[in-house]
Amino acid sequence: MPSRQPPIINAPWPVAVFALVLVGAHLVRILLPGAIENAVFFYGALIPERFWAPAGGMSAAGLPAYANGWEAFVPMVASAFIHGDWMHVIFNAAFLVALAKPLHEVFRRIWPGPALMASAVLLGLFLVSQVASSLVYLAASYPDGAPAVGASGGISGLLAAVLLLREGPDRWLFTRNFAVASALFVVGNALFAFVGPALLGAGVAWQAHVGGYFGGALCMRAILWRVQARRA
User: Fold this and answer.
1) Which of 44, 99, 140, 156 could pair covalently with 207 via S-S, beta carbons 3.0-4.6 A apart?
2) Distance (Å, rounded) from C-alpha 120 to C-alpha 126?
3) Residue 215: exposed, middle, or buried by beta-carbon count in 10 A (0-12, 13-18, 19+)?
4) Residues sharing a CB contact under 8 Å with residue 215, sequence separation 6 or more, in sequence order
5) What domains can you pick out in the chain, each with its CATH number?
6) 3-state secondary structure at position 232
7) pLDDT in tens, 39-95
């Protein structure tokens, strides 16, 4: 009977590297001197108070507004590489491998040849989902809210993409199966927001998960339409 390899070893190397980058980023951050670690969090975490503070001014809690559009955009991506603790980052890395592996394999079949194109599409899908997650969380946290960190938004988008693959490239988002799965995802996240603090000792940014999920769904639908158009 063949031995089973651990999922991260059995995964395509770009997926394994991405998961290890999440874990490595957390390790590096917690080893940094306190002042530098605080600076990484200040500039990399998604902080609604800073986003909604008046330009050039301060938030009600005394935090400065982002200096410009670029400084406001960076945390929408950088927050994916900051995690609260080891359980948080390992949980996200495991889900990343589980969801990104089948997607990468499909993208390799769509774009044969070097793995670079398939990896770039997968990374783009993750980043679009993460940015959508950040925007929804910011909108839900007006005019202030707890800082948000973690790759959960991007991973939620990968989940939506996996579910859409089952529907086929010529189906829209509003199929019965996808609608039911999406409703369960939204309700489950909303419920988890109430029990999360007791179970995990920290709040759960469920709005970010929902935003990432639907951002990933729209991005994946665009990818599938593109593939369908090329084959027509």
Assistant:
1) 140
2) 10
3) buried
4) 128, 129, 131, 132, 133, 136, 153, 157
5) 7-231 (1.20.1540.10)
6) coil
7) 999 999 999 999 999 988 998 888 999 999 999 999 999 999 999 999 999 999 999
